[in-house]
Amino acid sequence: MEKHKNFIGGEWVAPTGDQYTEIRNPADTNDIVGYAPRSAAADVDQAIAAAQAAYGAWAGRPAPERGRILYKVANIIEGQIDAWAAELTREEGKTRTEARMEVVRAVEVFRYFAGEAWRVGGDVLPADTTNTLLYSKRVPLGAVAIITPWNFPLSIPVWKMAPALVMGNTVVLKPASATPLMALRLMGALHEAGVPAGVVNCVTGSGAVIGEQLATDPRIKAVSFTGSYAVGHALYQKTALRLTRTHLEMGGKNPVIVAADADLDKAVNIVVRGGYGLTGQACTATSRVIVDRSIVDEFSRRLIAAAQKIVVGPGLVDGVQMGPAVSAAQRDIDNDFVALAAEQGAQVSVGGNEVAAQGYFVRPTVVTGVTAQMRIAQEEVFGPVIGILQAADMNEALALSNDIAYGLSATIVTNDLRQAIRFADQAEAGMLKVNQPTAGVSIQAPFGGFKNSGSGMFREMGKGAVEFFSQEKAIYIDGN
Length: 480
Ligand code: NAP
What we know:
- By secondary structure, the chain is α/β, with parallel strands linked by helices.
- It has helices spanning about 40-60, 65-80, 80-90, 95-115, 155-165, 180-195, 205-215, 230-240, 265-275, 295-310, 330-345, 375-380, 395-400, 415-425, 460-470, and strands at about 5-10, 10-15, 20-25, 30-35, 125, 130-140, 145, 170-175, 200, 220-225, 245-250, 255-260, 285-290, 345-350, 365-370, 385-390, 405, 410-415, 430-435, 450, 470-480.
- The protein folds into two domains: about 5-250 and about 455-480, Aldehyde Dehydrogenase, Chain A, domain 1, CATH 3.40.605.10; about 255-435, Aldehyde Dehydrogenase, Chain A, domain 2.
- It contains 15 helices and 21 strands.
- It is globular and about 75 Å long.
């Protein structure tokens, strides 16, 4: 089984100390997917030095030239979608269909930001004096650090890296320890497309050991982090000391409000897709459903019936609709939350088929009778567990929806335009959907959370990503 290497300065480099982490398929723990470097401080140091050395020449290239290289990366990945999707499923566990969507998303993100190469620049502004040219110009930041979670092991590194690169920054990526191999595969595609040595670097290994070093080294000019609130919050304290530009995208506890007038089958479909898609392991996954009291029993009955039909199993097997949890630890967290909810008085209904396979399977679960004070109503589970709360009217539904430390995504299911507009005005989250699942993001739209879901100053995707990875100069040229 292959021992992978870090990608530093355009070369594959074995980790100092020659230590590796075994990566096993979460759907079949007998299947070893590969061995990823367990990097040490010296490896990170080398990667940062390579990124710093490559910066001047990369930033000096015309943006369209950088964009052309990103187009090539997109084409290389597009030529291998099925192989990449199969590897992603083996490493992370999501179904082949979900993995394919993630790979296609990576291709689209590279193309989107490659296109930005022809648009980013600045503005010509009216000058206060005659014969004066006043304009603004966006310039890159330098070497930047990108730290990513395991649930989108390809697309999150890509949606951070593509805008960073097109703006002229150089990158050191640290992927999650549970899923580092897709990031290394991505390095291969960038290299093949002609990204110059040192412009992208990837070191794998424990965040607790190398993450902080990467984020706080004075040569790193910005940090883009996606992961849990606990890690993001602690990281922010450390990057603040040097005023390092920092972007945090963190957890969610995303609600769906089902209004009294909602089409119930449509509501169930929206909740199933948002809550059980990706095994509930999405920051935007539905985890709370707030249902009008008049329909809560019928809605719950239909949701439980739908959960029971979901086919759970290894993501590469045809017909499987939901894969395993990523790890034994995540499976245990899911089960512990459900057990605690039952202890606190909620009712638990477990769906899906019995899974005999050798993996970290959790069955799609509906918890009814949830009240706002229960931990399952307040804390992120990050698994296929949906809690149902009831509300007397829309005032209470909105209050419950907002009564939470997170604010990433929220949905209302209704046919009443007034309720939809009220929800859009009053719901406290960065992404609001009417009659669509809480999960699912458009590349061209600003993406990010309110409250503890995000640091809030910048957005990912769209023009927010370009803004994060650049800064503006104002230039005054007096022609008199
Ligand atoms: P995590 O435990 O916070 O880890 C995220 C990344 O931070 C990993 O690469 C991790 O490395 C690294 N890390 C750990 N300790 C660190 C430290 N002290 N300094 C610097 N880096 C450190 O999160 P996760 O379990 O991978 O991902 C699940 C979480 O991500 C959920 O909360 C989910 O909601 C969130 N998420 C948010 C979004 C969004 O856009 N808002 C998207 C996806 C996921 P190791 O893996 O080596 O520990």
